[in-house]
Amino acid sequence: MAAPAAHEQRPMSSAASIASQTARHDEHDIEDDRTIVATSRPATRPQSLHQVSPEKINGSKPPPDSELTDQTNFLPARQVITVYLGLCTALACSFIEQTIVATCLPRISSDLQSGSESSWVATAYLLTSLAFTPLYGRWSDIFGRKIVLLVALVVFFIFSLACALSKTMIQLIVFRALQGIGGGAIITVVLIIVSDIVSLKDRGKYQGINEAIAAVSNGVGPILGGVFSQYTTWRWAFWLNLPLAGIAILVCLWLLPLKKVHGDMKSKLLKIDYVGSGLTILSSILLLIALTWGGVTYSWTSAPVLVPLFLGVATLAVFILWEARYAKIPIVPVHIFRYRTVNGVYISTLLNGMTFFAVLYYIPQFLQLVHGDSPMRSSLLLLPFLCPIALVVAIGGQITARTGSYRPMVILGYTLWTVGQGLQTMINQHSSTAMIVGPLLLSGCASGLTFQTSLIACQAAVPRRDMAVVTGVRMFVRLFGSTITLAICATIINNTLRAALQTLSLSADQISAILNDPTIINAGSYYTSTITLSDADRSAIITGYSKGFRRVFYFTVAYTAVATLAALFLIQHHDLKRPDDDELKKAAEDLLKQKKLSKRGTGVRDSDLEEGKHVSTKRVVVDAEKVGDGQGVATPASPALSDSSTAAGSERPKKSLSDAEEGMVIQN
After folding, report:
1. Which residues lie across from 532 on neighbouring strands?
2. Which of 57, 124, 313, 392 is 20 to 30 Å from 480 by CA-CA measure?
3. Could you name the Gene Ontology cellular component terms for this entry (predicted)?
4. Residues ≥6 apart with Cβ < 8 Å to 503
C-alpha cells in the first residue's frame, strides 16, 4: 500500500483523504473507518461525483474486504420500530429454546431412560450454535443480513419439528444439534442488523431492548418447560417453536427492508472462505466433544477424550494460520485482536457465558434434586435471576445512550456478580427460599449490567467495517463458554455423586439407575420399578448432589472474579459518537424520500443506483440544499448535463469507503 501524501495546510482532496485513512488501518479506534458522505446541509457548497479507480484512491490493489457491501443503513425511528417487530419475534424463538429444556431435563431423562446423556440435549444445541457462529457474521456480509436470517429461521423450524417427534435420546440429541445451527444464527444476525440500522451512540438503548427480550424469553422458557413437564409432555418445548418460528419467518419477509448486496450468487459463493469454515467447525466440534466426554462418559486420560482434544487443538492452530496468511476474505480477521478492548470483552464474555448458563441450567436441577421442588416451582424460582436482567439492561441502555459511557457499568456488573455467586455457594438442602432468591436477585441485576454494555464496548473499539465480524466472534465466545461450562458442571456433579454412591450399599445396577434417572430421589418418590431407597440412602444421595452443586458455584465465583479483572484492566472507553453519524442518519431519510421519487420516472433505474453504477460520464453537481429538503434534485454543471439531473440524488445520497473502492467517490 502506498504511503499517504504529506499533510498540507490546504484541505486534502477526497482521494487523498481516503488514502490517508486507509493507511491508518491498524491505528487506534475508528479513525480509519469514516464513511464519506455527500452533505445535505444548506451551508455547505455542492458536492460533485466522478469516476476514480480504486488504485488511484489507495495507491495499490484494493483490500479483500473492499469486495463486501457496506450494509450500514441508519433508519428513522419509525422505520426502526417497524423492523424491530420482525427482529424481536425471531430473537424470542432462539432465546426461549436456550432455556426451555433446563426444567425438562429430569423428565426427558426419565422418559427416554438415559440420564447420563441428558446434558447433551443442551450441549448439542449450544455446540452447533457455537461451531457455526463465527461464520454468520461473514456470511451475512457476503449474502446479506436478511437472507441469512430467513435461512436460519427455516432450519430452526424444521428441526424443532424433528425434536418434537424424537423417539430416543440419540435422535433428540442429533436433532437438537441441527436445530442449533439455525438458532445460533438468529441471535448473531439480529444483533448485527440492529448495529446496521442504529448509530453507535443510540445503539445502547436498542441493544438494551434486545437484551430485555432475551431475558424475558429466557425467563419464560424455564416456566414453560416446567409447565409442560409437569402437566403435559416435554415435547411441547419443541412444538411451541413451530408457530413462533413461522410467524417470525412471515414477519421478516415483509418487514425487513435491508440493503441489497451487490453481485450475483456465483460471485457471492466464490467469496466464502470454505477452508476456514471447515476448520472452525471441525475444531469447535472436536474440542467440545473432548471437553464434554472428559470425566463423564470417559476418563480424561482415555483415548476417546485425548484424541479429539489433540486433533481439536491442532485444527484450531491450522485455522489461525490459514486466517492470518491465506484466506482472501477471512472469517475471523486476526487484526481485530490487536484491540485491547476487544480482547477484554472476549475474555469477560467467555466467563459471562460460563457463569450465566451454569446458573440457568443447574439452579433448577439443584431445586428439583436437592430441595425437592417441582419442575414448575423450580422454574418460577429462576425468575428472580432472569427478570431483573430485562429491567437493568433497559436502564443501562438508556444511560449509555445519554452519557456515552459504558465502562463503569461493565466493571460494576462483574463485581456485583462475583458477590452474588459467592452468596450462592452457601445454599444447601436446608436453605430457605429467601436464602436462595437473594443471591439470584443480585446476580440477575449484575449480569444485566454486563450484557449490552460489553457488546457496545467491542463495537466502539473497531472500525465500522469490522462490526459484523467482532459481533459474531463475541457471540461465538459466549456460546463457547456456555457449552464448556455445561460439560464442566456435569463432570463435577456426576463425579461427586458417584463418589457419594460408592459409600452406600448399592449394587452397580442401582448406581447406574440413579445416575440415569435423577427423579428417583425426588421427595415423595422413594420407590420405582427398578430401585428401592431407604431414607438414609436418599439423604446421602441428596447430600452428594448438594456437595456437587456447591462445587459448581465455587467455579462460578472464580469465573466472575476473573471477568471483573479483565473488565478493569483491558476494557477502555471509546467515543460512541462517530463523525459521520448525523450525515448517515440524514442520508437514510433522504434515501427513503428519493426512492419514492425514483418510482415516478426519474430516468434512472433503482437497480443501477443500488449497485452504484456510473450513470453519466460527465460531471454532475448536487444541489445540496434541495437534496437536504428531500427533493432529490441535481443541478447540472452545465446546461448540457440536464439529462443526468436525477443521478446524484435519486437513490444513493451517501458514499462510503466501500463505495469509493467500487469506483465512486465524493470530491471536496
Report:
1. 527
2. 392
3. endomembrane system; plasma membrane
4. 540
Give the DSSP letter of residue 532: B
All cell numbers assigned to 581: 453519524
Grid coordinates given for 618: 460527465
Looking up residue 475, the CATH number of its domain turns out to be 1.20.1250.20
Of 87-101, 229-243, 400-414, 540-554, minimum mean pLDDT range: 87-101
- Domain end, chosen from 544, 569, 594, is at 569
Q: What is residue 620's three-state secondary structure?
A: strand
pLDDT at residue number 560: 95
Residue 242 lies in a domain: yes
506: helix, strand or coil = coil
Check whether 2 has a pLDDT greater than 70: no
Total residue count of the chain as it appears in this document: 668
Residues 173 and 43 in one domain: no
pLDDT in tens, 185-213: 888 888 788 777 776 666 666 776 777 77
Residue 119 CA to residue 109 CA, distance in Å, equals 9
Spatial separation of the C-alpha atoms in residues 93 and 84, rounded to whole Å: 14
Which residues are CB-neighbours of 347 under 8 A, at least 6 positions away? 562, 563, 566, 570
| Residue 58 and residue 89 share a domain | no
Dihedral of CA 396/401/402/404: which sign? positive
In a domain, 47, yes or no: yes
Q: Which domain holds residue 183?
A: 77-273+328-569
Q: What is the mean pLDDT of residues 423-440?
A: 91
List the end-to-end C-alpha distance of the chain, in Å, as a whole number. 23
Q: Is residue 379 part of a domain?
A: yes
- Mean pLDDT check: name the lowest of 334-338, 372-376, 400-404, 629-633: 629-633
Where does the pLDDT of residue 378 fall: very low under 50, low under 70, confident under 90, or very high at 90 and above? confident
Catalogue the E-assigned strands of 335-426: none
The contacts of residue 348 (CB under 8 Å, 6+ apart) are 410, 414, 450, 454, 563, 566, 567, 571
Judgement on whether residues 38 and 184 belong to the same structural domain of the protein: no
Contact yes or no for 104/228 (Cβ under 8 A): yes
For residues 407 and 440, state if they share a domain: yes
Reported as a pLDDT band with limits 50, 70 and 90, residue 179 is very high
Burial 315-327 (b: 16+ CB within 10 A, else e): bbeebbebbeeeb
C-alpha cell at 507: 449394587
Tens digit of pLDDT for each residue in 64-97? 555 555 555 566 666 777 777 777 877 888 888 8
If asked whether residues 110 and 255 sit together in one domain, one would say: yes
d(CA 455, CA 576): 12
Which tens digits make up the pLDDT trace of 584-611? Answer: 666 656 666 666 666 555 545 544 444 4
DSSP β-ladder status, 620-622 and 634-636: antiparallel
Considering the domain architecture, whether residues 518 and 590 belong to the same structural domain is answered as: no
3-state SS of 9-75 is CCCCCHHHHHHHHHHCCCCCCCHHHCCCECCCCCCCCCCEEEECCHHHHHCCCCCHHHHCCCCCCCC
Q: Are 192 and 468 contacting, i.e. CB atoms less than 8 angstroms apart?
A: yes
Residues 56 and 83 in one domain: no
CB 576 within 8 A of CB 200: yes
What pLDDT shows up at residue 94?
84
Strand partners, 664: 51
Q: Which of 539, 569, 599 is the last residue of a domain?
A: 569
Structurally, the chain folds into a number of domains equal to 2
Domain assignment present for 289: no
Q: What is the mean pLDDT of residues 47-73?
A: 44
Cβ–Cβ under 8 Å, residues 648 and 622 = yes
